[in-house]
């Protein structure tokens, strides 16, 4: 065997050992199942600050156990036996090894405990995002969220902070299952100007994340967990997988929730005065969502509402909208027209599924000539 075969391999190993960054998946003790040095204490907080392996904490931070009660209410532990609860202004943090300039997404589960408004400030300074836990998207009492950020250096720290100041200091959100994923921005396919139009690249999803991952608004923060896309509204959209939902193409898609309050958009590069087709899959997620399902699709100054009509055993249909670009960048966007809930559970939000979004220039001078012919014809009709 020639030596030359080994050289690239060695080079690869060297490069690899230099850049040891966090692997995709759960953070160290990201599920809070590693026992503290003095063991889990059955009735929550003992004396003094609680030690959580791999995490730093400040303020009233408590490890809660599945089945644990508070004021007659059983605390929600999203996964496994343990989770963490953050009291007033309390926080937990963990150091992260990152790659400067790269985009990452952090996925986590969060639940409210008391009925008050609760919100979490999740930050990887200088990036930060506040997650409003007031809206529950599913009846089980907790949801999975993902937020995106760009690494400003190779050393980062992720901080979860409860910004609340409740009368009852033990009220506060419960968090569990914190994972990270380094995102890449897929190349645009030839002809199609939409980036990540098939939604295959997105946040970390636990294999058994049966209710998808909520993507909250990222308008003020330009980095989303969905490369190419912006969640523009004050409510979240749901990132779903083919293991638990009907997905038109590939393994991932977006389920639009909360009517006009859940908008995704992308600015695509266009040539002014050129004609384009916006083509996408529109369907149902297979989650017993109450019909009717319909979306509003925007392409520049064009807006069109499109109803999804289930045909036979199909789970989706292809929609097609023609527009003429007015500028070098055109906004395409989607929201659900209705505010849908599941037929089997009226408290869980659902909605139409959008996937495989493509914007293609209408090519060939023939079609353009035909277009002009149509305009001329309309003009003649108008005169008549
Ligand atoms: C803990 O939080 C308090 C109040 O938010 C702050 O003043 C203090 O510096 C923090 N301590 C550490 C060690 O971060
Ligand atoms: C996912 O499955 C694993 C193994 O099957 C299990 O240990 C874990 O608790 C599950 N997580 C959730 C969120 O259900
Ligand atoms: C969230 O935390 C970050 C970092 O500590 C801070 O800069 C930001 O102002 C906080 N945001 C809110 C809304 O409290
Ligand atoms: C729908 O699916 C069922 C069961 O898979 C099958 O028996 C039926 O022929 C299908 N109908 C159509 C129109 O494809
Ligand atoms: C979309 O409609 C245009 C005409 O308006 C047609 O040329 C094109 O083939 C259609 N594309 C798809 C995928 O249906």
TrEMBL record:
Signal peptide: 1-22
Coiled-coil stretches noted in the UniProt entry, renumbered to this chain: none
Domain of life: Eukaryota
Keywords: Cell wall, Glycoprotein, Secreted, Signal
The keyword Hydrolase is assigned to this record: no
Boundaries of every DUF642 domain copy: 25-181, 193-359
Pfam family, one: DUF642
Gene3D superfamilies: Galactose-binding domain-like
The keyword Oxidoreductase is annotated on this UniProt entry: no
A Gene Ontology cellular-component term: plasma membrane
InterPro entries per record: DGR2-like_dom, Galactose-bd-like_sf, Pectin_Meth_Modulator
Chief location category: secreted
Compartmental location: Secreted, Cell wall
Protein name (Swiss-Prot/TrEMBL): DUF642 domain-containing protein
Species this chain originates from: Stephania cephalantha
Lineage, top ranks: Eukaryota, Viridiplantae, Streptophyta, Embryophyta, Tracheophyta
């Amino acid at each position: 065997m020639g030596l030359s075969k080994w050289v690239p391999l060695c080079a690869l190993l060297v490069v690899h050992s230099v850049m040891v960054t966090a692997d995709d998946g759960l953070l160290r003790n990201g599920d809070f199942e590693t026992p503290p040095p003095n063991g889990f204490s059955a009735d929550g907080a003992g004396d003094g600050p609680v030690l959580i392996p791999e995490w730093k904490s400040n303020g009233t931070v408590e490890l809660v156990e599945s089945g644990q009660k508070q004021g007659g209410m059983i605390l929600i532990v999203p996964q496994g036996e343990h989770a963490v609860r953050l009291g007033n202004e309390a926080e937990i943090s963990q150091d992260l090894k990152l790659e400067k300039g790269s985009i990452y997404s952090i996925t986590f589960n969060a639940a409210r405990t008391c009925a008050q408004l609760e919100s979490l400030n999740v930050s990887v300074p200088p990036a930060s995002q506040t997650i409003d836990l007031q809206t529950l998207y599913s009846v089980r009492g907790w949801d999975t969220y993902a937020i995106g950020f760009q690494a400003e250096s190779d050393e980062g720290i992720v901080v979860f902070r409860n910004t609340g100041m409740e009368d009852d200091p033990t009220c506060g959100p419960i968090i569990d299952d914190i994972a990270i994923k380094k995102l890449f921005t897929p190349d645009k396919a030839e002809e199609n100007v939409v980036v990540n139009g098939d939604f295959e690249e997105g946040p970390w999803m636990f294999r058994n994340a049966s209710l998808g991952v909520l993507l909250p608004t990222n308008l003020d923060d330009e980095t989303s967990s969905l490369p190419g896309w912006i969640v523009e509204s004050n409510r979240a959209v749901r990132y779903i997988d083919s293991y638990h939902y009907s997905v038109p193409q590939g393994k991932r898609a977006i389920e639009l929730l909360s009517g006009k309050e859940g908008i995704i958009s992308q600015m695509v590069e266009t040539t002014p005065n050129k004609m384009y087709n916006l083509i996408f899959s529109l369907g149902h997620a297979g989650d017993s969502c109450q019909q009717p399902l319909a979306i509003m699709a925007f392409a520049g100054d064009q807006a069109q509402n499109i109803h999804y009509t289930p045909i036979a055993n199909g789970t989706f249909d292809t929609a097609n909208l023609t527009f003429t670009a007015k500028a070098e960048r055109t906004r395409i966007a989607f929201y659900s027209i209705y505010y849908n809930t599941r037929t089997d559970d009226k408290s869980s939000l659902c909605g139409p599924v959008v996937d495989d979004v493509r914007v293609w220039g209408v090519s060939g001078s023939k079609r353009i000539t035909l277009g002009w012919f149509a305009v001329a014809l309309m003009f003649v009709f108008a005169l008549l």
